[in-house]
Amino acid sequence: MSRRRFLELAAVSFLTAGCREHPPATTTTTTTTTARRREKIRAIAFDLFTLFDPTTVARVAERVLPGRAVAFCDTWRVRQFEYSWIHAAAGQYRDFRAVTEEALSYAAEVHDVVLTEEARATLLCAYEELDPWPDTRPALEAFKRAGLVLAPLANYTPTMIERLLRHGGVRDLFDHVISTDRARTFKPDPRAYALGPQVFGLARESIAFSAFGGWDAAGARWFGYPTFWVNRLGQAKEQLRPGPDATGSTLRDLAAWIERSGA
């Protein structure tokens, strides 16, 4: 597979998520896709977009670039992926905010947009001011009552994660904050996923991973996490094998799967 095709496939779910309105929520039956020996789930690592709605960025972009936001965001998001992976693969790491700003400058160039400093700051900060999904806080509270240890495991910088959690009013529900910046790489690099066992102090088999993108679900599963794909936007099933252990559309589906797994 060519590098270009790989990037297109990996980015597709986020292209739709970050720059277009999401469809009405639907209930998806959770289904186990693979069978393997189960350890007791003691912790959950979340991709941030399973907790926060990335289409918030689209609404902000529409205010800055009325009528042009969708195409602009599509270009911005693709380059965000490409630049993050290229930097990491080449050993020229830059953190996620820096990569996001590089990609933003590229999108402005492609679409012949002159962004004021205020507009640039507004667009960049949109990633730290996403709206929580309606089920986010109730689900997190339930996980805490069940005695599970919780942390986001995200490509965001530590500062970006802290700002987002506080903006969404859920910082108090997390025991740890895990940024891949600590490993100077990005998901789906195994070194990024390896931060989970290090920070939680648990075996990977005891940490459930909550993925938003199909590519992230595959990467987490390959690393060895019991993995649930919270497919909020009804994306097509990825053809990466093995895929996630199970799939659903809400955190309620995630909770039911964890309960069946013996948390």
CATH superfamily of the largest domain: HAD superfamily/HAD-like
Question: Strand order within the widest sheet?
Answer: 1-9-8-7-2-5-6
Spans with pLDDT under 50 lasting ≥5 residues? 1-18, 23-30
Using the coordinates above, name the CATH class of the largest domain. Answer: Alpha Beta
Count the E strands.
9
Sum up the structure in keywords.
263 residues, Rossmann fold, DNA polymerase, domain 1, 11 helices, alpha/beta, seven-stranded mixed β-sheet, two-stranded antiparallel sheet
Ordered list of secondary-structure elements with their pairings:
Elements: H1 3-19, E1 31-32, E2 43-46, E3 52-53, H2 56-64, H3 69-89, H4 96-110, H5 117-125, E4 131-132, H6 136-145, E5 149-154, H7 158-167, E6 178-179, H8 190-193, H9 195-200, E7 207-211, H10 214-223, E8 227-230, E9 246-248, H11 251-260
Helix pairs in contact: 1-3, 2-3, 3-4
Write up this protein.
- The protein is of the alpha/beta class and 263 residues long.
- It has eleven helices and nine strands.
- The chain has two domains: 25-53 and 131-260, HAD superfamily/HAD-like (Rossmann fold, 3-Layer(aba) Sandwich), CATH 3.40.50.1000; 56-128, Putative phosphatase, domain 2 (DNA polymerase, domain 1, Orthogonal Bundle), CATH 1.10.150.240.
- It has helices at 3-19, 56-64, 69-89, 96-110, 117-125, 136-145, 158-167, 190-193, 195-200, 214-223, 251-260, and strands at residues 31-32, 43-46, 52-53, 131-132, 149-154, 178-179, 207-211, 227-230, 246-248.
- The strands form two sheets. The chain has a seven-stranded mixed β-sheet with strand order 1-9-8-7-2-5-6, with helices on both faces. Strands 3-4 form a two-stranded antiparallel sheet.
- The longest helix has 21 residues, at 69-89.
- It is globular and about 55 Å long.
